[in-house]
Each structure stands twice: as structure tokens, then as C-alpha cells.
Amino acid sequence: MTAARTATAPAPRLETAGLTLGHDRTLVVRELDLRLPTGQVTVIVGPNGCGKSTLLGGLARTIAPRSGAVLLDGKPLGSLSTRAIARIIGLLPQSATAPDGLTVRDLVRYGRQPHQGLLRQWSAADAEAVEHALTAADLHDLADRPLDTLSGGQRQRAWIAMAVAQDTDILMLDEPTSALDMGHALEVLEMVRGLTGRGRTVVLVLHDLSTACRYADHMVAMRDGRIAAQGAPRDIVTPELVRELYGVESAILTDPVHGTPVVCPVGLAARTA
Amino acid sequence: MTFRSLLLRGLIPAAALLLAAVLASLLLGAGDVGPSRALATLLGDGDSDSRFTVFQLRAPRTAVAVAVGLALGVAGTVLQAAARNPLAEPGLLGVSTGASFAVVVAIVLGAGAASVGPYVAVLGAAAGCLLALGAARLRGAGDDPVRLVLAGAALSGLMNAGSSVLLLSDARAADEIRFWTIGSVAGRGTDQLLSVLPVLVLGLLLAAAAGPALTALSLGDDVATGLGHKPRRARALAVAAVALLVGSATAIAGPVSFVGLVVPFAARALVGPDLRRLLAVSALLGPVVVLLADVASRLFARPYEMPLGVMTALFGAPVLVAVVRSQRMPAL
Amino acid sequence: MTPTPPNPPRPAALPVPPGTRLLAFGGRSVLLPVRPLLGGLALLAVVVLVTAVALSVGETRLNPVDALRAAFGHGTPRDVLLVERLRLPRAEAGLAVGAALGVAGCLMQTLAQNRLATPDTVGFNNGATAFAVASVTGTATQLLPSAAALVGAATAAALAFALGGGAGRNGYRFLVVGLGVGAVFGAVTNLMLSRAAIDSANAAYAWTVGTLNGRSAEAVGYLQLGLLVCVPAGMLLGRRLALLRFSDAVATGLGVRVRGLRISVLLVAVVCAGLAVAVSGPLGMIALAAPEAARRIAGPRSVPVLTSAAAGAALTLLADLLGRTVLSPLEVPAGLVTAVVGGPYLLWLLLTTRPRRTA
Predict the structure, then answer these.
(1) How far is CA C118 from CA A147, B3, B183, in A?
(2) Is the minimum CB–CB distance between C121 and chain B shorter than 8 Å?
(3) Cβ neighbours of residue C346 closer than 8 Å, sequence gap 6 or more
(4) Shortest Cα distance, chain C CAs vs residue B202, angstroms
(5) Which chains touch A (3 or more CB pairs under 8 A)?
(6) Which of C37, C267, C241 is nearest to A99 (CA)?
(7) Could you tell me the pTM of the whole model?
(8) What are B189-229's pLDDT values in tens digits?
């Protein structure tokens, strides 16, 4: 997209080695080994409280590991400056809030901050990245509207545009569709999938398993802080997996349009000890 | 909780504390009458000097402190129940400062402090109460304990500043006024106490009358209505009770903060959340807190005396912090 | 997706965000926001104006222009003496106190993500006052008042943060904890004042309301020194500060070391508040109102540290001016003026500020 991007020929790869994460006294993610396939959409799924968001936080260094490490191009994140990481990994956390009165363009411009400095406040790359992000999110008409006047879907697109303007090789989004209705959710997810076009790696946390199947190249199913299964959705999504994750009996159908698995819940599974 | 356990865990310990606090207030203090001599005097074996100190100086002061504590303790409990807010405290919400500000204004307008009496104070307290609660309810901040407190703090800061400006501009009345900006029971006697007693008693009666409805209110307005109570009337009754109680207390002792916070907090620790039990225990613990604060204020700054209001802030502010920390405050 | 241009594009061809001008020189680039910049300049003019009036008003009235000239040593010897000796020190103190409170308020509000969190509402001022009074009355310490006030502000900050569970995540709880901490320090101050000899009661009064009357030249010197460090520091932090207004995760994602930034911001705020209190006592509301005015001028994109300082300076001087003139010959301390004028404003702010909703 920019000079910087084409120069970094060997694409960076993110992986974890024995990653353990926790809040306060509880461990949420245990001893996780994970590799994120470059240039693909990885979707993390799992029941409430399984550690999806925590894992994403760990991958994006907002949560420091208890043990193990997240490796970016083989180097632990902790050894890199957070600003340098911000040029490679972009993060959109769940339910982000913005100061009052900010316009869409203002927000998107903040995405350029990792590339700027006190005496390097605006460059051609900045201008281009902001334009590109506004285009990708189809927000040109709304660029100078305050965020609080937008609909939920538009606002979410503005946030994603900020992350896009950051122009990182890896982009992580935590439940970007959680507060949106079906139409807005689709709008956001289609936009996100469009981002992988140029070798960008995308990591999503999603709530809904069928949606996840539809958009994931690579799916990571978590339960109790561990990986229950990972791989292409059509390979790993089985009634057994759904039962293991959610305690639900289900039938797995095939989406007649996209050919991806669709989970049809049948009833609660019998409790096994 | 049965009545027996209320007696064992609430009333008896509180009454014992009250007895001890009254004794401490009679025995300890500035001046040359030490504890042992004061005790001997109490047991009927004292000279005229020590009798004067104990019966003419300390006893009236103790009675005043008991009355003030009773009023503020009960007022705090009632206000917390009415606002459904563990931080609602007459001092913090600007009720006490409202009362003292009203008195200051009356004095500046020409009334003598003695003739002003408790009625102006009650009016001021009512105004302060309504202002804080009303403003908060109007803007929908009433459901948020913390914002209510901040609004009250802003209100009382404003009225304090107003009092100070009046104090500056009217040097003649300054001495009379200064008392009304900081609470104290020093030099207060039975005269003042008797003149506010009717108001105080009326306040207590109203508080008792509001009790059952307020208890139901703790389950929410809808449930209370379902149980046959009228939430609006109960709240109005509670506000009237608080205004009468705080107004009378302020008329004797000036604005004293934090008592209405500490007392319900301690009472809840003893007997749990039931309002009727809380009221009974608060009525005993209120005097304890004020008496202890008064005794401490006599001893701390010898030979000077420290205002009671300062002492209660010293005790009470940490309790405020503790309450906020223990609460699951809405994340804003 | 355009191919990489062979040469860096000329600045002239570079599109800039609306409402800004680009200042580019030798590979450096600074983006100037036009409206905030003009607003800031207008504010600066207001500061000069208020200063001129403040210098001209007193027992002998001067013409504001003469007063300003006299401040720079021009004019009749009598005017110069009057202004330089008597009025200028007070005006300088007011400007410095106001600027410091403006900076401290702006930083605290950003740190706590709450417009109501200012050094006075969260107890810094009371802490600083308590320690300064301890140093003045000589009951506890031999520290200079300025140093004592610094320690006091830092103590109050540490307490409020430790007990409030940190600002930001639960802003309002932090505020009430700060209120409690402030109340304790206020009580301690009263305790010390009631123990102090009666003849110093008048001096003591200044420590309970906040006033520019009777400020110590030494403390003003320390404050000015502090400002010389803190204002540039605040401006340097400014760009990252803007990101602190988002959630921690967003700020981290954009490359900000949130913890470290928080600590430096708090440090600057504490130094400003502490040194200012050592001069004027607990002067309220300035730290609340100045950033608010600055935000009106600077708009939502940035955190206006410098504009806040200017607004604080103007407001403080204005409050002092009002206090000297309204009930003249009686002098109302600036702290009472700010309390009476700012109180309703604070209430209004409190009751109209909606809790922040999630996106």
C-alpha cells in the first residue's frame, strides 16, 4: 500500500509459545501455542468466558503474558517498543469510546500517530493512508461528520477505518459486530474481508459460530483457555465440537450459497460429568 | 434476624457504647477536673468547683451532643433509605450547609442569633435537601450515588463560599456567623437544646412514620407500590423528617458532616439492611459518634478546642472512602 | 494503491486535513490547526488585556496603557514604582498560579477521562494546603512551603489513586475517593490552624480560601521555575495525551505506553498544583473552568495544555480583579470569587454531563 509495506518483503508472522494470560488471580488462557497464517482471516470462537478476548489482548500486547510469549517475527513482543509494534499490529478493541465531538476524519487520522512524530506530523503517506481508509470503509461522504451523529454501523466502520489507516500487516478486531444488527454486521464483515486482499493478516473474535464459519479462512475454537480445535471451518466444525464448546446438540448444514458450514442448534446436550 | 438477635447484636452493644461515651464526655475534658475527680463528683463526692465543671459545663454539653447525634444519625439513615444511596449524607448533600447558610443570611439581614432559632435552620435544611435531591432527580443523576454526592459537595461548597462572603462584608456579625460555618457543641447549653427540642422530636416522629414505607422502597418503587405504599409520599415524609432533624441539629451545633454517613454504615454492619432495625440502632449510635468526636476534639488540641465538624470529617472521610470502595459503583 | 513515487512529493501537492495548514521544512512537518491557533492568539490578547486592567486598578487608578508601559519601566517614576513594586508581583503571581492550575486541571481531566476531575475536586489542593500549613505554622516540618506543598499534593494524589483503584476505568468513584481524601486533609489543616497561635489566624485564613493577597515572592519564584519545566513537558506529552482519551487498549494499539504516560502526566499535574497552592492556597474552580474554556477554543482533536494555561491565567487574574473591586474597599479573596462564580457552573456541569456510553 505504501513504500514501507512493499519494502518488508518477508511477511511478519505472529505466533505464541506456551502463552499463559490472566486477570488478577485467575488464569484465562493456558499454555497456548498458536500460529496465525499470514494473509488470511483467522477467527477465534468459543463460549462466553473461554478467553477469546483475553487471547486477542495478549496477541496485541494490551495484556502482558504470565508466562510464555507472543512472538512477532520470532521476537517476543515484550522486547519491542510498543510504538514499533503499533506499525505492524493494529488493534480495535471491543466497545471502544471516543472523546465527544470528534469527526470521522479526526478519528481516522489518529490511526497515523504511530507513524508520526513531534516534527513529522504529516506526510504523503499519511494523506494517502487516511484517504485509502476512508475509501475502504466507504466513509468519504461522512468524513467530516461528528462520530456521535452516526449510526452504530457507520461508527463501527469509522473505527475500523482508523485501524486500517494505521496501515499494519496484522489487524485484530474484537467482536466488531457485537452491537450491530444483521445488515450492519454484514457491511462490517465484508469490509474486513476485503482488507486481506493485499496480504494483510486479520484476526477476529466473533460470537456467532455460523458467521465465523463464513468469514474464517482459519478458525481457532477455544474452551477454558485452551484450543479445542483449529483449522479450516469445514474441517473442524462438527457436532462433536459444538457439543464440546457450547454443550449444544446440533446439526451441521452447508450454506447453499457459500458452501461454508452452518450450525443449526437442536437442543441442549445431556450433561456429562 | 429475630428480635432477640437484634437485641444481642445491635441494641445492647450500641447502648453499652452510648453509656461509655456519655461517661467519657462527663469525665474527660479541658480544665483541671481530671477523670478520677470527675468520677467522684458524679458519685456525689465532689467540691463546688468540680460539681460546677461536671454538672454545669459538661453535662449540658453532653446532652447537646446526644441530641445532635440522635438527630444526625437518624437523619442519615432516613436520607440513605429515601435516596437509596449509601453515600447520601445530610452534610455531604448540602443539607447542613443549607441550614447554616440560611441562618447566616438571617443574621446578616438583622436577626439576632438567639431569636433566629431553629426554624430558619429547618427551612434552610429543607431547601438544601430539596435542591440536592431535586436537581439530581431532574437531571437523572439521582440513580447514581456518586454523582449525587458530587452535586451535594458542589452545592455545599457554594453555600459555604456564600457564608464566607457575608462574613467578610459584615464584620459586626462576623463572630456570630463564624460559628455557623463550622460545627461545634462547645459552649452550647440546655437553653438552645430546649428551644429546638420540639422540632427534633417532630422530626423523629416523622422518621418513625416513614419507616415502613421506606423499608418497602428499598425493594424498588414498583414493588413498594405493589405492596400498597406510596413512594412519593414516603419520600416527601422522609425529606421533611431529614429537614427537621438536620435543621434542629444545625441550629444547636452548626453544620456537622459525616455523622449521617458513619452511623448508618456502622449500624448496617451490626444489624444488616433492614431499615426499622437500622433506625433503632442509629438512634443509639448517632450520639456515640458525636460524643466521641466531641471528647476527641477536647483532648486533641488542648488547650484550644477543635471544632466538632473538623473531628467528624477526620473520622468520617475514611468511612466515605471505604463505602465507595466497597460499593459496586456503576462504571461511567 | 499507487506505486511509490520516485521523489518525495512536494509539500505544495500534499493534501492536508481540512482546517489545517502544513508547515514543512527540510523533511520536518508540523500541522497547524488554524482555528484553534487563532483562538489561542485571541486568548493571549485577553490575557494581556486583563493584566493591563489588573495593573491599572487599585487605590490610584491608572490608564491601562500607562499601566502596561509602566510594567516595562516606561512612564512617570511614580507609576513605574507603583506598578513594578506593588501591582506587578501580584499580577505575576496570579498569572503563574492560573497557568499552573490550568495545566494541572487539563492534565487531570484527561487522565481521569472526566471533566470534573481537577486538582481541587480530587483533593490535591487540600493535601498541598495541609502540608504547606504544617510548614508555615512550624508544627511538623522545616521544609519550605513550596516543597511541603509539593509533598502534600503528591501524597494526596498517591492516596486518591491507590484507594480509588486508579483513574480512568471508574472515574466517578475516583472522584468521591478524592473528595474523601480532600476532606481529611481539610480537617487536618483546620486542626493545625486551630492549634496555631491566635495572632497568625489572619495568615491562616488565606490558607483556607485561596487568595493572591500576601503571597510569598519565594514561592512565586519556585512556581515560575516549575512552569518553565511543566508547560513544555505538558506540550510534549500533548500528542500522546490525545490518545489517552480513548480506552487503554486503543491507546496501546496506537503505540502509547499507557502506564508510563499516565505517571508522567500525573507527575506534571502534581507539580503544577502543589507549587500553585504554595503561592495562593487552595484556589478552586480555575482548574475546572480553564480547560473547559480551552477545549471550546481548541476543539475536540487535541488536548489543549497551552491554551488551558492561558485561560487559567486570565481567569485567575480576573477573579482577583473582581475580588478587589466588587466590594471595594473590602477585598474578597480570589478563592471566594471563584467559589461563588464557579459553584453554579460546577453544579451545572455535574448535572448535564452524561455518563460516557460505549461506541
Answers:
(1) 27, 48, 27
(2) yes
(3) B154, B157, B158, C116, C285, C288
(4) 32
(5) C
(6) C241
(7) 0.86
(8) 777 788 888 889 999 999 988 888 888 877 777 777 887 77
